[in-house]
Amino acid sequence: MEARFNFIADTAGIRLDKAVAGKLEDFSRARIQKLIRDGLVRVNGVVSKPSYRLAEGNKITVMVPEPTPTNLTAQKIPLSIVYEDKDIIVVDKPAGLSVHPGPGHPDKTLVNAILGYNSEISCGDAERPGIVHRLDKDTSGLIIIARHPKAHLYLSNLFKNRQVKKTYIALARGHLSPESGFIDAPIVRDRSHRKRMAITTNGSGREARTGYRVVEYINDFTLLEVMPETGRTHQIRVHLAAIGHPIFGDCTYGSNSIILPRQFLHAYKIVFRLPSSGEELEFTARLPEDLEKALKQIRS
């Protein structure tokens, strides 16, 4: 089933591919450019190039065809299923498991595990069937999988309209003050280190806003609840590092730890309305054993 998205350009001079990327946040830039080149993105009904500069008020239509079969391998990898129905699956992803295949990890990912659990999932990006949002490889916690195109479109719109409430548990270095607040700082890819993200003040970044609440001060650390309002790559990690409180164990934006080989970040709660009924449900996932052990050592 083809999915169709419509929106009105509210900024003059922005490139077509960048404008579409801002609206379809779950789509990679490469995928968006391919849709444009294939004539599936139109401006006022006319096929345009990725570099086309929009005028304010232009009507953009994006047509996303049903994904074609892929060579992804279904693999029997243990999954912790928190909830499932005919539309979605909510999984408690362990740390160390990539969400989808990529350079350096062609298989043994969450996508391979999901296909091993239900081979009929075939919605979204052809290389990322069922994936609506993502977690970093070494971040544990809750992630929603769509079973079919209609559910994928529904969930994508929830995320786009910020109608999914996500809460993470993080352990940050130092004592974060004030005890609650927001970090509002646009994020771009770091030009010096392409695998890192960075905040920017020159107007080139994508909006990023993160709320937080201190749960407890533990020796020289702060245990936090973190509520990202946007979903940028590495957002929580970048924002906390930018204010001088990197996440414990985060070797990319902070420093290594001898007691925890990954960042102390866990997506422990997610709240959203079900595709089938519109009922709002809350799902939670307790801290995994490695984070509980790290907390115990830090308290001692």
How many individual β-strands?
A: 15
Q: What is the terminal separation in angstroms? A: 56 Å
CATH superfamily of the largest domain: Pseudouridine synthase
CATH class descriptor name of the largest domain: Alpha Beta
Question: Radius of gyration, Cα only, in angstroms?
Answer: 20 Å
Q: How do you describe this structure in short?
A:
By secondary structure, this protein is of the alpha+beta class.
Please describe the topology of this protein:
Layout: E1 3-8, H1 16-23, H2 29-37, E2 41-43, E3 46-47, E4 59-64, E5 81-84, E6 88-93, H3 110-117, E7 140-146, H4 149-160, E8 165-173, E9 180-184, E10 187-189, E11 197-199, E12 209-218, E13 221-228, H5 235-242, E14 265-273, E15 280-284, H6 289-299
Parallel strand pairs: 7-14
Antiparallel strand pairs: 1-4, 2-3, 2-4, 5-6, 6-7, 8-13, 8-14, 9-12, 10-11, 12-13, 14-15
Helix pairs in contact: 1-2
Architecture overview:
It is a single chain. With 300 residues, this protein is an alpha+beta fold. It has 3 domains: 3-64, RNA-binding S4 domain (Structural Genomics Hypothetical 15.5 Kd Protein In mrcA-pckA Intergenic Region, Chain A), CATH 3.10.290.10; 81-161, 2-Layer Sandwich (Pseudouridine synthase); 166-267 and 292-299, Pseudouridine synthase (2-Layer Sandwich). Helix content is 19%, strand content 29%. The chain has 6 helices and 15 strands. The chain has helices at 16-23, 29-37, 110-117, 149-160, 235-242, 289-299, and strands at 3-8, 41-43, 46-47, 59-64, 81-84, 88-93, 140-146, 165-173, 180-184, 187-189, 197-199, 209-218, 221-228, 265-273, 280-284. Strands 5, 6, 7, 8, 9, 12, 13, 14 and 15 form a 9-stranded mixed beta sheet that branches. It has a 4-stranded antiparallel beta sheet with strand order 1-4-2-3. A two-stranded antiparallel sheet has the order 10-11. Strand 10 and strand 11 (197-199) form a beta hairpin. Helix 1 crosses helix 2 (29-37). The longest helix has 12 residues, at 149-160. The model has no long low-confidence stretch (mean pLDDT 91).
